[in-house]
Write a structure and sequence with these properties.
- This protein has about 400 residues and is an alpha/beta fold.
- The protein is built from 16 helices and 13 strands.
- It has 2 domains: about 130 residues, Aspartate Aminotransferase, domain 1 (Alpha-Beta Complex), CATH 3.90.1150.10; about 230 residues, Type I PLP-dependent aspartate aminotransferase-like (Major domain) (Aspartate Aminotransferase, domain 2, 3-Layer(aba) Sandwich).
- The chain is about 40% helix and about 15% strand.
- Strands 3-9-8-7-6-4-5 form a 7-stranded mixed beta sheet, with helices on both faces.
- The longest helix is centred in the C-terminal third of the chain and has 19 residues.
- The protein starts with a helix and ends in a 19-residue tail after the last helix.
- The chain binds pyridoxal-5'-phosphate (PLP).
- Pyridoxal-5'-phosphate (PLP) binds next to helix 5.
Length: about 400
């Protein structure tokens, strides 16, 4: 039996390679950070991690995790409702609710699970989910598992959202679902307008804060802080795997009754292991740090502003961003690959994205800024982009008026 299936798989894999869509993984042999070592031995600057606050290798989080190994052991070997709940999990859930100004929180192994397990327990076939067309794969999968009627609106298109909300009046309960920050463009959801439409058409709101929590808003409280709507949306999902330390873990936070019902009925919660105590303990320390100082958010915001301004001055086409994601538009898929390869030779680790991850002819290099980046890292990145950009004809060769002192030729 397997030999036939093996042939089939071999052909599938060859097809992926022929289409130029095969993903190769680079191997890192140092801790995650601004400066990393890859398996070739090269030391490069990392501009493609979700390590927005630079916490992946933070000494305080490492110390908290080490302490927890001694006080709480290594693993739980249980789901939460049998014998997998520790004081650490309850404390972390409370910290997350405090951070977002919500009523209660439920932890998951990952945000993929939080999104996979949020719709089906809450909504039935007489209800409606109205979803942004660029929402994350885990939201799409979660919606698929739910019997509610599905409506889709064009990314951030409020006129289209309104049309869909009118159609969804046919259902009983309505839930609008959106990523808070869209990961390929860096734009934030127009939550103020979404909120007004939700009021008008009697709908609830769910936001996925994965790329925005810790990043967006003056104190990094996410999209609800940015739009002055803290505590006003019914459901927030998020991850501990990006800005918040980057290890693993997800959560849903929001209205108390919603969280209560998820604890009873959400399948990825009921049928999957608890997050390890080291992760919970480091998470607690992380949220304590967030309430003690705004240093990391301030640095991240300053870094992003600096990077975008210099790149625009150098002549690059960057999508307007409200996050730490800077999409350097190249449009051509091959060019994006070639440019990323040349940048790696210059010591800058970035990734080119092209169809089907982004629309056809909208290829780009996605640069992710971190509070771990120092000015010299940013300058080196800008200089490398400028050098390679000129070589490849992406930006003009003459004086760009950059004047940034970044050795870009000005
Ligand atoms: C990364 C991401 C997820 C998945 O989070 P994990 O905790 O890594 O599973 C879900 N939604 C969005 C928008 C994301 O960017």
């Amino acid at each position: 039996m397997y030999s036939k299936f093996q042939d089939h798989l071999t052909k599938e894999l060859a097809g992926i390679k022929e289409a130029g869509l095969f993903k190769n993984e680079r191997v890192i042999v140092s801790p995650q950070g601004a400066e990393i070592t890859i398996s070739s031995g090269a030391e490069v600057l990392n501009f493609c991690a979700n390590n927005y606050l630079g916490l992946s290798n933070n000494p305080q989080l490492i110390a908290a995790a080490k302490d927890a190994l001694d006080t709480h052991g290594y693993g739980l070997s249980s789901v939460r409702f049998i014998c997998g709940t520790m004081d650490l999990h309850k404390t972390l859930e409370a910290k997350i609710a405090e951070f977002f100004g919500t009523e209660d929180t439920i932890l998951y192994a990952a945000c993929f699970d939080a999104n996979g397990g949020v719709f089906e327990p809450l909504l039935g076939e007489n209800d409606a989910i109205i979803s942004d067309s660029l929402n994350h794969a885990s939201i799409i999968d979660g919606v698929r598992l739910c019997k509610a009627q599905r409506y889709r609106y064009e990314n951030s298109n409020m006129a289209d959202l309104e049309e869909q909300l009118k159609l969804a009046q046919a259902q009983n309960f309505r839930l609008i679902v959106t990523d808070a920050v869209f990961s390929m463009d860096g734009n934030a959801a127009k939550l103020d307008e979404i909120y007004a439409l939700a009021q008008k058409y009697d709908a609830m709101i769910m936001v996925d804060e994965c790329h925005s929590a810790g990043v967006v808003g003056k104190t990094g409280r996410g999209i609800t802080e940015l739009h002055n709507l803290k505590g006003k949306v019914e459901v927030i999902t998020g991850t501990l795997g990006k800005a918040f330390g980057g290890a693993i873990g997800g959560f849903t936070t929001g209205k108390k009754e919603i969280i209560d019902l998820l604890r009873q009925r959400s399948r990825p919660y009921l049928f999957s292991n608890s997050i390890p105590p080291v992760v919970a303990a480091a998470g607690i320390r992380m949220f304590e740090m967030m309430s003690e100082t705004n240093e990391l958010q301030d640095k991240l915001h300053a870094n992003t502003e600096y990077f975008v301004a210099k790149m625009l001055a150098a002549g690059f086409d960057i999508k307007p961003t409200q996050s730490a994601i800077c999409a350097v538009m190249l449009y051509d898929a091959k060019l994006s690959q070639e440019m990323a390869a040349k940048l790696l030779n210059e010591g800058i680790y970035v990734i080119g994205f092209y169809y089907p991850v982004v629309p056809k002819d909208k290829a780009r290099i996605r640069v992710q800024i971190s509070a771990a980046h120092e000015r010299e890292h940013l300058d080196k990145c800008i200089a490398a982009f400028t050098k390679v950009g000129k070589e490849l004809g992406v930006i003009k060769n003459e004086d760009s008026g950059c004047g940034c002192g970044c050795s870009c030729g000005n």
